[in-house]
Automatic annotation (TrEMBL):
<dbReference type="InterPro" id="IPR013083">
    <property type="entry name" value="Znf_RING/FYVE/PHD"/>
</dbReference>
<feature type="region of interest" description="Disordered">
    <location>
        <begin position="1"/>
        <end position="87"/>
    </location>
</feature>
<dbReference type="InterPro" id="IPR011011">
    <property type="entry name" value="Znf_FYVE_PHD"/>
</dbReference>
<dbReference type="InterPro" id="IPR052727">
    <property type="entry name" value="Rab4/Rab5_effector"/>
</dbReference>
<dbReference type="Pfam" id="PF01363">
    <property type="entry name" value="FYVE"/>
</dbReference>
<keyword id="KW-0862">Zinc</keyword>
<dbReference type="InterPro" id="IPR017455">
    <property type="entry name" value="Znf_FYVE-rel"/>
</dbReference>
<dbReference type="InterPro" id="IPR000306">
    <property type="entry name" value="Znf_FYVE"/>
</dbReference>
<feature type="compositionally biased region" description="Low complexity">
    <location>
        <begin position="26"/>
        <end position="58"/>
    </location>
</feature>
<feature type="compositionally biased region" description="Pro residues">
    <location>
        <begin position="1"/>
        <end position="25"/>
    </location>
</feature>
<dbReference type="InterPro" id="IPR021565">
    <property type="entry name" value="Rbsn_Rab-bd"/>
</dbReference>
<dbReference type="Pfam" id="PF11464">
    <property type="entry name" value="Rbsn"/>
</dbReference>
<keyword id="KW-0479">Metal-binding</keyword>
<dbReference type="InterPro" id="IPR036531">
    <property type="entry name" value="Rbsn_Rab-bd_sf"/>
</dbReference>
<protein>
    <submittedName>
        <fullName>FYVE zinc finger-domain-containing protein</fullName>
    </submittedName>
</protein>
<feature type="domain" description="FYVE-type">
    <location>
        <begin position="194"/>
        <end position="288"/>
    </location>
</feature>
<feature type="region of interest" description="Disordered">
    <location>
        <begin position="396"/>
        <end position="419"/>
    </location>
</feature>
Length: 476
């Protein structure tokens, strides 16, 4: 640790060697001291000796550089020489953005033309000329546009000589149509020359006529491979295939039909592979962007069910207070009105439909443990809590009193139960089951399922008997 420097001395009794002050500087001092007239004042030994060192020390202090305020804050470096290049950066960025936008627009237009070429609308296919219809009826199921590389489609074991010759002729016709399709694709997108590339530009894998064939991207024309992912060379495939549904016009990516020389099982996947259009990994964002806009335009089933679920829940919450007001007006009457019975039936039907919607949302297929699965289970839990909270006020309507004789005992009436009591919590699941069984009985009768309705009525009678028993025990 470095010791701190001592403070500078302002006065020293012995004069330090250095330049002497000029004589004129000491003359005014002696003249001033001699004007007093006293002998003590006439001997300016002490003042003169003290003034000389003071002047010399002042000369020393003025010769040392004084410390001035720093032009920047302590702990921060001063601002150096700089040149603003914001305008250059903005100009370069605008240029790159414009180039990217132009390239993206070009690829999107090519994609639209390719979809119109390979996957035309059904109406345009049906309105084709007679020659095309005859060509389409050659293969029995229609002449789909397939790639020339689909030679795996021949089943040589189960074909005789005539069928084999017929298949060769049909394959020649297919290759002729594929030649026309290839020429149309090259008019849309200029293809790269095959001799100019010996390795895949994305994964640097060498091409081979059998193990690694050359493929052209239909959007940019670059030659690429179709090898599966392999770490660390290929984290994802260099090319993908896509098809477009003729009815819904939805874009779907399909896998390779041949993996390591082995055909995949499944006629649907093989048909999609044979009709797929290949694009490279660099052009895939254009395809995924189109898929995103298609998904945004279409509403998934979960959203439709959830909207109906929320709207029905709001209707039930608005209808329950009206039904409770009807119960209060009917508490002292003898005969329940038709309006109260109809309101109760509407609420029961709404609760049954609410439960059905919640179960439909739960049954939507999704991956187990995914966020979608958690949301569906949360919706079902919310529906169960809603039913437990709002189905208890749906008690049975008061029955008319019997007035045959004054001595006859007063029939038992359904007492009003405190919702916070233990009896209310015990009766709550039974009342829910009663309401659901009533709705199920109504549905079974509407669909003329009398055997199911009979079983449901028996279960409903047992539940009602249990409810009456618990209420009678509570009154006692």
């Amino acid at each position: 640790m470095v010791a701190p420097l001592p403070p500078p001395k302002l006065y020293s009794p012995t004069p330090t060697p250095g330049p002497l002050p000029p004589p004129s500087s000491s003359a005014p001092v002696s003249a001033t001291t001699s004007t007093s007239g006293s002998p003590a004042a006439s001997t300016p030994s002490l003042p003169s000796t003290s003034s000389a060192p003071a002047s010399s020390s002042a000369q020393i202090r003025t010769s040392t550089p004084t410390r001035s305020a720093a032009p920047y804050r302590p702990g921060f470096q001063p601002k150096g020489v700089y040149r603003p290049r914001t305008d250059e950066f903005a100009e370069y960025r605008t240029k790159r953005v414009d180039e990217g936008r132009i390239e993206q627009t070009k690829l999107e237009r090519r994609l639209e033309k390719l979809i119109a070429l390979h996957f035309p609308v059904e109406n345009s296919v049906e309105k084709g000329v007679g020659a095309r219809k005859d060509e389409a009826s050659v293969n029995g199921r229609g002449m789909e546009k397939r790639r020339a590389s689909s030679f795996f489609n021949l089943d040589l074991k189960n074909m005789d000589a005539s069928e084999l010759w017929k298949g060769v002729l049909q394959s020649q016709m297919i290759q002729g149509s594929n030649g026309d399709t290839r020429a149309a694709e090259q008019r849309i997108t200029p293809w790269q020359d095959d001799a100019a590339v010996s390795k895949c530009p994305l994964c640097v894998a060498s091409f081979h006529p059998l193990t690694n064939r050359k493929h052209h991207c239909r959007l940019c024309g670059t030659i690429i491979c179709s090898l599966p992912p392999k770490l660390p060379q290929r984290q994802s495939p260099c090319s993908v295939l896509f098809v477009v549904d003729a009815k819904t016009r939805r874009i779907e990516e399909v896998g390779e039909g041949v993996d390591y020389g082995v055909r995949r099982a499944g006629a649907g996947e093989e048909e999609k592979f044979l009709r797929g259009v290949r694009i490279c990994r660099s052009c895939r964002p254009v395809l995924t962007r189109q898929q995103y806009w298609q998904e945004m335009a279409s509403v998934p089933p979960f959203v439709r069910f959830y909207d109906a679920f929320i709207s029905l829940e709001k209707e039930i919450e608005d209808a329950i207070p009206q039904f409770q007001d009807l119960l209060l007006t009917l508490s002292n009457d003898d005969q329940p009105t038709k309006e109260a019975s109809a309101a109760r039936k509407r609420l029961l039907d709404a609760f049954a439909q609410y439960d059905v919607l919640a179960k439909r949302i739960r049954d939507i297929p999704c991956n187990t443990g995914s966020s979608q699965n958690h949301v569906q289970l949360a919706v079902l839990s919310r529906a169960n809590l809603f039913l437990q909270k709002h189905m208890f006020p749906l008690q049975s309507l008061p029955k008319p009193k019997k007035r045959d004789s004054s001595s006859s005992p007063v029939p038992f009436e359904t007492p009003l139960v405190d919702p916070d009591s233990d009896l209310a919590h015990t009766l709550q699941p039974l009342l829910e089951q009663e309401a659901l069984l009533e709705s199920f009985v109504g549905e079974a009768m509407a669909h003329r399922k009398f055997e199911d309705a009979k079983t449901l009525k028996a279960n409903l009678a047992e539940i009602r008997a249990e409810i009456d028993r618990m209420l009678s025990d509570a009154v006692r």
